[in-house]
Description:
S-adenosylmethionine-dependent methyltransferase activity; Methyltransf_16; DEKNAAC100240; SAM-dependent_MTases_sf
Amino acid sequence: METLIRQxxxxxxxxxxxxxxxxxxxxxxxESQQKVxxxxxxxxxxxxxxxxxxxxxxxxKLERHMDADSxxxxxxxxxxxxxxxxxxxxxxxxxVLGYTLQADxxxxxxxxxxxxxxxxxxxxxxxxxxxRTWEASLFLSQWLLRDFRSSGSLTRKSFExxxxxxxxxxxxxxxxxxxxxxxxxxxxxxxxxxxxxxxxRISANLLLxxxxxxxxxxxxxxxxxxxxxxxxIKIDTIVAADVTYDASVIPDLAGILAEAMSQDNGExxxxxxxxxxxxxxxxxxxxxxxxxxxxxxHDRIWDWQIIDSTENGKYLERNRWDCIWYPxxxxxIKIYEIRRVIDNLD
Length: 346
């Protein structure tokens, strides 16, 4: 039941939801049925067509497994009647997805969940990068949060007492994860994106997660690489995900990183570390990105390394890591650590 509820939150595609595990040992109890139905009711508020398909699937399974003593809640049939005429969504339609970053071992209602309003059916392409949460954001967020919790953390020093800036934040997923669960350990967080319309969407996603846009340690601002200056504030660490989606943006991305790490902005100093997750959709784009990284290393601006990737066996079975589900066949994702070279002037 717990797995099913978490999959419904994230809108895992109906053919892939794990209804069968709900019937492992016995017919689902009325209490268990009610908990799943409650989640379906929440889903139907923003995506009635998805709810319709889920209810049909569950009713079919319940009826197939029932015996003379089994009881199916009437609420399933009532919900099916309610959403029967729902139409399929179009790619630009929005929904509110819940990503389970840390599962409670007993009660999914106590899970640590990040809520994001997005357009989950969009495919990757220019102009759509900030309209849905891409897999690189999920992978980077899970990796950072898991590393923070480990005794031998590789990254904690880059975040404790530091001001973090997210480049190309899109839906804001990475920054929201950090702020929601590690706010007390960080000094501040800055969300940036080049699209002013996405800035408005980030504000809505902050509110969904009970984060006030007026918090003193939080800023949201426009940053168009190659045109806008970095915010006039001391920035220690940069995070970014899926910002290498096209070769045309690589020069400006490398430029903003070089500016952040090589130019001493007076009282604001320089950025020390960046963590960037990149999806390998086009090998030539990643080659261009790594060539710019090599150039920066040659110029003694930074050192860089790949600290993890999805090829390292970190996924659990069925492309699941912890309680977040990834599409079958998702392209490889790499996490890059870029550290400023410390010279005698620092």
